[in-house]
Amino acid sequence: MSLGKDLQHVATLEPETIPSTFPKKFPRRDSRLARLGENLRLVWRVLTSNRKVAIGSSIVAFFLLVAIFGPMLAPYDPTATSRLSETPPSAAHWLGTTATGQDIFSQLLYGTRSSVFWGFLTGLLVTLVSVVVGLVSGYFGGIIDEILSLVTNVFLVIPALPLAIVAVGYFPKGPLTIALVIILTNWSFNARLLRAQTLSMRSREFVTAARASGESVWRIIFFEIFPNEIGIVAAAFVSTVIFVLLAWTALEFLGLGDINTVSWGSMLYWAQQSDSIFSGLWWWFAPPGCCIALLGAALALINFGIDEIADPRLRSEVSEHVPKELKEKAVT
Amino acid sequence: MRHLLRRILFYLFAAWAAITLNFLIPRLAPGDPAAVLLGNLQSRGIHVGSAYLKAIQAELGYNTGDPLPIQYLDYLNSLLHGNLGVAVTSSFEPVTNVIGRDIFWSLGLGLVSVILSFALGCLLGIVMAWKRGSLLDTILSPLLNFLSAIPYFWMALLILYIFGFELRWFPLTGGYDELNVDPGWTLDFIASVIYHGILPALTIVIASVAGWMLTMRNSMITTLSEDYVLMAKAKGLRTSRIMFAYAARNAILPNVAGFAISLGFIVGGQLLTEMVFSYPGIGYSLLQAVQNQDYSLMQGIFLVVALGVLGANFLAELSYTFLDPRVRLERSA
Predict the structure, then answer these.
(1) How confident is the model over B288-325, as pLDDT tens digits?
(2) A172, B145: Cβ pair inside 8 Å?
(3) CA of A288: which chain B residue's CA is closest?
(4) Is B116 exposed, middle or buried (0-12, 13-18, 19+ CB in 10 A)?
(5) What pLDDT, in 10s, does the model give residues A12-47?
(6) Which residues from A are below 8 Å from B161, CB to CB?
(7) CA of A167: which chain B residue's CA is closest?
(8) Which of A271, B70, B194, B236 falls between 20 and 30 A from B133, CA-CA?
């Protein structure tokens, strides 16, 4: 079982508990660059050592590239209408046109930018809120923890999407409203996760040492404890982005977003409004959904891969692909 | 018992929080929702009775000089009397009537789908963990992972398009054949309901099964390496007995414990599914409420959904306490 434990440490990226491959070092201010290089190497190892993580991150990287450069490659103005309405995919219009003759391929490229940008940004903000609540709650304990945990648990059991629909309905339509409402309704799950982790970390030696040396509470929480939870936070961020993407497109699909901007959700809204299904316009509603599903699956794949690195028993392949040095360590 | 009491108190608190959120959201909004609602009423040329006007005011905090605490008491009072305002989209029926009519469709669809997906997910997870590394495990795992990343409503669109529009195997909209069948406990009606419910249920099952399955698979793998499973194998017990009575029985606990989070997500997905299929449940009413800015109906539906999910979670937790003696003994000691 020592094999499993070793891998678990690599996966959660806790620098002071990785025994063989990454020798324990005291943080020195002058070697920041070296530490950065070491961290990047570690990230690269995690990315390439597991097939699921590798495939997932490649797809995510592809979508990020499309989000950045896609609109430059778009053959048409995504909102420009034309007389060529409801044409199926052709050489001129790769994914066909909408009921008003807009080019769907161009819409998809522009929509990727909007959806990916807001998805990742909101995901980041949701994670930020859960980190602050989780760490503060776990570190302080006592009455602060009681109150924060209660609020966290309440938000955990109140269904997020209905609450989001009702809340968005009252406020001015636009991405900012959706982002705020999604933050409000989705932070609780990871906050609980991080609280539990912080609780177990609070009594470790390095925290006691930091406290004894007179470091301020906020410094201990965010500069001593937080870096040790970065692996869990990263995994939490990945799964949060999936939830955010799903919630975001759902709200836009209902017409609660800014329906005049081009995004995956608003494309689906217009497709639904024009009864694209009952006219058989599959090329209209299929592509945006495919993109959401593909990006979501890629993100989920990354998380499954991380889980497998953390707990090799979960792997589907029986012959385990284990880094050589860890294998040797397990034998000895 | 102390544990149980704590949980009851927590759920009461959560219910209060949901009710209060429902009260606060319209009042925090920058515009004047009640004015929009009343404008909406008047533009349809319908005079609103003073009782309803008062209910709307109490509910949305419109045009009342009362301070917030008094409004809050008014709101709680009208809730206690089962007054949720009127639904503009449904020709001014009381919201409670609309929800009361829709809720059976939603409950029926939801219960059947959740039970099916839970059972199917657990079963698949058990088999996948048992035959780890087999073809089934290596193919099904990434496939279901892909399915779980698909938005419910898009899955619904796709299923509706393929099975409803292209193949014409199933009806496109509605909860039963309104032209040919009268509602009632007749065989025709029940058959029609089932026929119309298959696609929505299929959507929910496909979209939600992966979560149950993966949790089951992972916790099953952990229990399979326990000594008592080895012992059972050594005793020469039947495979099915080891699988279900020994390993799966203990592995199912995380799935029951994770019910709370999953259920909220599935219910949200079900609302979207109903919207796409024009299924006569509360999801479809919610869509109409959202599109027509029918705030009373929106809030009533949120309240019912939130309280329903809280209740279901409480039941799940009760069963968890019942299933896992550790929870009972640890807390009450």
Answers:
(1) 888 887 888 888 899 999 998 999 888 888 888 887 77
(2) no
(3) B154
(4) middle
(5) 444 444 444 444 455 555 566 777 777 778 777 777
(6) 277, 280, 282, 285
(7) B25
(8) B236
